[in-house]
Amino acid sequence: MTERHGWMTTLAFRLAAVVFALLLTSAVLLMVGAPPLEAFRLILEGAFGSPRKIADIFVIWTPLLLTAAGLLFTFQAGLWNIGIEGQIILGAVFATWVLRIFQGTDTPPGVALTLAFVAAALGGMLWALLSGVLKVYGGVNEIFSGLGLDFVAVALVLYLVFGPWKRPGVGSMSGTEPFPRELWLPTLEGFRLSPWALGLAVVGWLVTMVLLLGTYYGLRLRAVGRNPRAAYLMMGLSSNRIILSAFALAGIFGGLAGAVQVTAVYHRLLPGISSGYGWLGLLIGMLVNFHPVWIGPVAWFFAMLNLGSIQLPIVLKVDSTLAGVLQGALVYSFLLGEGVRMKWLARRRRAGEAS
Amino acid sequence: MKRYWMLVLLLLLVALGLTACKKATPTPTEAPAKAEEAAPVETEEPAKAPEETEEPTQAPEATEAPAPEEFVFGLLLVGPKDDRGWSQAHFEAGKMVEEKLGYKMVWLDNVNPAARPGITPDQLAMELVDKGAKVVIFNSDDMYDEALTFAQENPDIYVIHISGDHVWKEGKRYVEVPNLSNLMGRMEYGKMIAGCAAALTTKTGKLGYLGPLINDETRRLAASAYLGAKYCWQNYLGKDPADLKFKVTWIGFWFHIPGQTLDPTQVANEFFDNGYDVVISGIDTTEALVQAKAYREKGQEVWAVPYDYIHACEEAPEVCLGVPYFNWYPGYRQLIEAAAKDQWESVFLWLGPDWQDINNLETSSVGYLKGPGLSEEASAQVDKFIEELAGGLNLWVGPLKLQDGTVYLKEGEVATDVQIWYLPQLLEGMEGQSVAE
Amino acid sequence: MNVELRHISKFFGPVRANDDITVTFEAGKIHGLLGENGAGKSTLMKILSGFLRPDRGEIYLDGQRVTFRHPADALAQGVGMLHQDPMDFPAMTVLENFVAGSPGGLTVNRREARKALQELGEQFGFHLDPDAEVASLTVGERQQLEILRLLWLGARVLIFDEPTTGISAQQKERLFEALRRLAAEGRTIIFVTHKLYEVEELCHTATVLRQGKLMGRRTAPYDLDELVQLMFGRVLKMERKPPIPLGETIYRVENLVVEAPRVNIRGVYLEVRRGEVIGLAGMEGSGQRHLLQACAGLLRPSEGRIWFKGQDMTGRSYLDFYREGVTYLPATRMEEGLLPGMDITQHLLLSRPAQGFFLDNHWANGLAQEAISEFRIRGRPDTVAEALSGGNQQRLLLSMLRPKLDLIFMEHPTRGLDMESTLWVWEKLLERCRQGTAIFFMSSDLDEILNYSDRVLVFFGGQVSAPIPAEELDAESLGRLIGGYGFVPAEEALTQTTAP
């Protein structure tokens, strides 16, 4: 079987998976009494209906892309960085912290915002390194430490929002006082989209691609991820250092995503600041088999779904969690398709051997 | 491989079959809506009928551009539209506006960061504007900043922010925004009645208040409940106010968000477990009532007072002492009509009960619907209390001290609206946090 | 009960674990099943006891054809197997384990079971406390429990898979006694082992498997040399290592002690010179892998010192050895040596010193092409490792060895390779020896050990002998040593020589 042939079957399976996902979603839509075609049309209209909406896709895409890009490093190193949610949150906390220091001073907003992003990267990195250190030196599986640190991060935000950073006289989890306008990341006139945030995400994505596809570092990451024992024996690679560096990078990206959420989306800190992009990022990574190029379009597609699906409850009066169902159906179909493809390939290979 | 195709084929067939069935189903007639209009105001039908009328089959209409003469208003609900609390009260008021005034409503519920991650209320308001809305109602304190931002950025859209104080000239945070109005009900009265009913019912003399988050609004409502309770305890039962325990526990938000707020179910349980036999709810959902029912079924004599929504008692009538509820219809009517007739003015509306009949849905913005859990005797006394209030009884009169002992109102001093709205702490005699730690 | 296996074949992918095996085990006898690890003994027994289903072939019990879908089927027909690792429930008591799996299930009469356990135990001299937790028992006691359980369930054919590993000498005596007694009662006993002397001591017949094939069946008394030959075969025609002038001492260990479960290596003194080849011989699992890893810094020895190129490397990690010019080549290629999902080019890039920060694809491609042609790998630069055949995976592994190495540790350098490839691999390795590389390798192929080693370390039962010059050994004598005959642990050899 030639490579090309393999590529084409892959594409065929992927397309079949998309079709299957659409069918699955249609079935669910029908069950709740909504016409599927109308629903899909509404999602598209809700995402592309106006320049403002298209810009809004990018608003969601920005933090999501950063998160997904960061996750590639840990994915490639064979790690399940479940702690990504916490890393986003810590980034947001650090960014808020810096902005609170500079708010109301004469510091130029550009400086304050830059420092906020640097601090966010640092915060995310530290949080991720906690998982890494626990894994490398404590033998704690990163899934457990990540889950734990996610909880701790939310608890930290709750503490801050109810405690030191509360609005005067208020005790609500709905967040801190919004920052003054000058500390919002500047947006395009008439849009919610900040070109700065978008630029950061795209640069981050490019850096990820180059690092993973074009450098020894990326190669080593993969080696350790695929087979740490072989990397150790045959290549003299210490998986510990590589694991730590992967965590650090994922944390930096997650932290930056948190800073984007604070400075360009919510303009304040709130417990839900991560918007679940960590989980979504993990899903995207799995979906594209952790390919650095494909995370971009797939993350964009998810952002589009998120935005477009708001139309479902507004117009069709069905719950917009259906967007989640659609995403779930997609992932499910892809995984199913992968499974079927693997089986199919194995059978072909066996058939090839037998003949 | 053949079997997979069979499966897909089967799915397709099922899908086609369902669409066919769907088309065959006749569109529901307008009957339920009419029946509802005919029904007396206080029956329970109105609560349910609107749900039935909003059918997906109407949807395609909504996507078409609204007819030119149709005036559209938008409603953003912080919680689910059927939460039997705050959001449902708003939703049904909106339905009433649709039916009685002929305006068209576009709405979206669950507008909060936990349910709609990454999407902000002002963004969603824009979606409603895209659907033709000329007025957008932000129904929650949680949208405080976004409502203002949205109003400022879209001067040609009328914005109603519920529970806010942005355009209150006497208020602390006044901003001049011509297209923004604030609307709130004087729930202080409802809460006083609730407190009275609770005090008249309790056997242990311990009242629990299940509070949402802490802010000006929630403090003054909790305090009102306490004032009502203390008054009835003292004057109707002739007991010493020092023997009345009144404890407030805040969960952190208007409703339960797992992992981010306290669990109201647990808070209610704790109250009941510790001898607090009446729990007054200040949150948007009905956990206190549900738990009271559960404890009652276990044989414990407990009661609850839900909040917000006229039919909240229905979930567990036997333990329900009644519900202080918002009726947003009068306020909505006033503001939306003004917008539709080009008579809009930026106003701060803080609407009270219609003392002729506090349960008149046409006129009374705040009401109290007594529940079956209230004894006959207590019921009569509650009626008497309402009469007294209607006759001008004011409990926000000095001497009143704040929780930390500082004087809030001097002897004989009557609290102004500003003093009440911005109550800085809980009152002396109340247990619980005044401000966030 | 007579057991008859006819034309049994079982394939795992391309591996023929059992290849057309026909054999009979008569009732009332103890049958030894001999063979190296991987010879197919366990597979055959798992088929007989219903854990595996054969791809081809039939099983007959007393002339009746039977098919087992499940171990319970086999047990119902009277065939029970004791596995190498006890398959019991450690958290439960002896009695609970005893009744587990009985057809009555939960409704078993515990009082009756307790009685049966005690009576059976007394018969065989097994003293087990019914209420003790299984986790607190020794391996031997767990084995005894399992035997009693199988007997209680009515097993008439009992299969023992390497039952003497991990039990005390006393327990072994008791076990052998029990086995003789069971055979005398008319039961069929199948005793799976690779230890020659156990077969000689215990078994009435010996059936030998090699590489999935039946090599023959002999009855006691045995010709041990013949058994050795049946087990290991003599098919290789390897050239003896040509004389290579040895250089200076490059590696030295002193009084190395390696302890692990079932491994007790003591008294290793060794000086290795450039160009020298040290062979580690023994049945698989006799401790040679432990020593090899300890020598490379992959395992921490409990005692002893290691010098490499004049430096004291005691307690240093493998990475330190690696940096100094050492590589350890594992036997399981996909598990420990290669990166699944990564191609030949990437493997080579990673095993060479980095050329800067960014990858040079052109250079990398050249590197891969070169390795492919030099090592005759049947693949392209972008072929992923798992798509290569076993032999080509081994070639890729060898191509990944850095050009300049001082010391190579190898597990089974030619396992799974055909004759031609084997000779070729050694040609490559000897080429390195000529350039001054020393090699440590372990192998279960006696000819490979004899032909390519300068000196041999023999392992038996977790112990190691003193180094023996290869020319003092031939296949028969080495085979006997591996089987434990005339084996003297290095430590004893030391005391013997130093005693007088």
Task: List the main descriptive attributes of the protein structure presented here.
heterotrimer; B: 437 residues; alpha/beta; Rossmann fold; 6-stranded parallel beta sheet; 5-stranded parallel beta sheet; 14 helices; globular; disordered N terminus; C: 500 residues; 18 helices; 21 strands
Description:
The complex is a heterotrimer of chains A (355), B (437) and C (500). By secondary structure, chain A is mainly alpha-helical. Chain A is built from 14 helices and no strands. The model of chain A has no long low-confidence stretch (mean pLDDT 88). Chain B is 39% helix and 14% strand. Chain B contains 14 helices and 15 strands. Chain B has a six-stranded parallel β-sheet, with helices on both faces. Chain B has a five-stranded parallel β-sheet with strand order 9-8-6-7-15, with helices on both faces. Chain B has a two-stranded antiparallel ribbon with strand order 10-12. Chain B is globular. Chain C is an alpha/beta fold and 500 residues long. Chain C folds into two domains: 3-232, Rossmann fold (3-Layer(aba) Sandwich), CATH 3.40.50.300; 249-325 and 404-498, Rossmann fold (3-Layer(aba) Sandwich). Helices cover 35% and strands 25% of the residues of chain C. Chain C is globular, with a radius of gyration of 25 Å. Chains in contact: A-B, A-C. At the A-B interface, α1, α2, α3, α6 and α10 of A face α1, α4, β2 and α6 of B.
**Uncertain segments of chain B:** 1-66
Assign an overall shape of chain B.
globular
Radius of gyration of chain B, Cα only, in angstroms? 23 Å
How much of the sequence lies in strands of chain B comes to 5-15%
Helix content of chain A: over 70%
Portion in strands of chain A? under 5%
Q: In order across it, which strands form the biggest sheet of chain B?
A: 2-1-3-4-5-11
- Tell me the CATH superfamily of the largest domain in chain B: Response regulator
Low-confidence stretches of chain A: none
Q: Can you tell me the number of structural domains of chain B?
A: 2
Largest sheet of chain B: 6 strands, parallel
Radius of gyration of chain A over alpha carbons? 22 Å
Q: Give the CA-based shape of chain A.
A: globular
**Helix fraction of chain B?**
25-40%
Give a short account of the largest sheet of chain A: none
* Number of helical stretches of at least 4 residues of chain B: 14
Quaternary status of these chains? heterotrimer
Distance between the termini of chain B: 64 Å
Please report the two chains with the greatest interface, counting residues with C-beta closer than 8 angstroms to the partner's C-beta. Answer: A-B, 62 and 55 residues
